[in-house]
Amino acid sequence: MNRACFISCGSYLPERIVTNDDMSKIVETSDDWIRARTGIRQRHFASEGELTSDLGTKAAQQALDRAGLKPEDIDLLVCATTTPDLTFPSTASIIQRKLGVPVCQAFDIQAVCSGFVYGLSTINAYLASGQAKRALLIGAETFSRILNFEDRATCVLFGDGAGAVIFEAQQGAANINERCIVDTQTYCDGTLTELLYVDGGVSSSKTAGHVHMLGQEVFKHAVEKMGQAVVDMMAKHNLTVDDLDLFVPHQANQRILNQLMRHLKLPQEKMISCMALHANTSAASIPLALNLAVESERAKKGDLLMMEALGGGLTWGTALLRL
C-alpha cells in the first residue's frame, strides 16, 4: 500500500469583486442584512466568457508552479464541480487540455459543496492502490451562472472561484503520524434532496436552472451532520480537539461555523474562515481556505488538519490530513 502525500496547493479568484453594496443594487438587501446572517462581505464573479475550466486551470497552474512540477508529471486529474463548462466532456478533460497534461486519467466529481471531500476520498484510493502516482485535484465553480438574482435568500450566498491541490503516492501505509491523507468519510441522504437543489437539468428541463434552498433546514442539518461526522472521525482515530492543529471547513455561512465551534468546543484560533472575502464557492471553498491557511502559515508541514463539508444531495463528509 502507498499513502497519498500533500505536495502543494494553489487558488484563483476572478478579478470581478461584487460587494454587498453592489448586491443591494440588484436585489432588495443590504450590507448589514447579509453580514448579520452570513458573515459575507463580498464575492467574486467570473467575467463574461470566463469558464469554470479557466478558473480551475489557473489554480492548478499555481499548484504546479509551487511544486516545481510539469504537466507531464500528473497522471490523475479530478475536478469537483457543480457548474461544468459543458454537459460533456468533463471539465477535468478540458482543464487537462488547457494545462497541457498528456494522456492520463481525468474525470469530474459532482457532490456539490462536498465535492472536494469526495475528491480527496477518490484520489486517495487511486494513489493508495497504485493506480496513479501523482494526482491533481481541483475544486472549481462559476456558481453565479445558476443564481436567481431576484431571490435574496440565495443569490447573496455564493461566489465563483477555484482551488487546487497536488498529492503523490509515497511508499508505506497511511497512518495518523505520517504526512498523508489519513482518512476520509463520505455520506449522502437522497431523501433530503428538496432542501437544496437546482431546478434544471439535461433530462428534466434542458436548462441549467437556478439554486433553491430551504435555509433553516439546511442550517440545522449542516450543524448536526457535519458536527457528528467530525466527532465520528476523531473517535475513530482516538483524537480530541487538542490533537487538531487546524479545522478547515466548507465556507458556507459564518453562523454555521460558529455553531459548529460551540458544538465541538473548538477554539477560534483553530478554525480558518475566509467566506467573508469570497462567499460560498461550493466545491472550491475548502481548497481556497486550505490555500489561504498555507500561504498565511496557519497550516504548516506536519500539521493535522480536519476538513468537513455539506452540500446538496444532501451530501457531507470529513477528511483528516497530515500536511
The CATH homologous superfamily of the largest domain: Thiolase/Chalcone synthase
Instruction: Give the C-alpha Rg.
Output: 18 Å
Side-by-side strand order of the widest sheet = 1-7-6-4-5
**What's the CATH class label of the largest domain?**
Alpha Beta
Low-confidence stretches: none
Mean of pLDDT: 98
Please tell me the total number of domains: 2
CATH topology description of the largest domain: Peroxisomal Thiolase, Chain A, domain 1
Strand content: 25-35%
Largest sheet: 5 strands, mixed
- H-E string: EEHHEHEHEHEHEEEEHEHHHEE
Task: Determine the fraction of residues in helical runs and give it as a percent range.
Answer: 25-40%
Number of H- or I-type helical stretches: 10
Shape assignment = globular
| Level-2 CATH architecture of the largest domain | 3-Layer(aba) Sandwich
Question: Could you explain how this protein is built, in words?
Answer:
The chain folds into two domains: 2-171, Thiolase/Chalcone synthase (Peroxisomal Thiolase, Chain A, domain 1); 180-322, Peroxisomal Thiolase, Chain A, domain 1 (3-Layer(aba) Sandwich), CATH 3.40.47.10. It is globular, with a radius of gyration of 18 Å. By secondary structure, it is an alpha/beta fold. A five-stranded mixed beta sheet has the order 1-7-6-4-5, sandwiched between helices. The mean pLDDT is 98. Helix 3 crosses helix 4 and helix 7 (215-236) packs parallel to helix 8 (254-264). It contains ten helices and 13 strands.
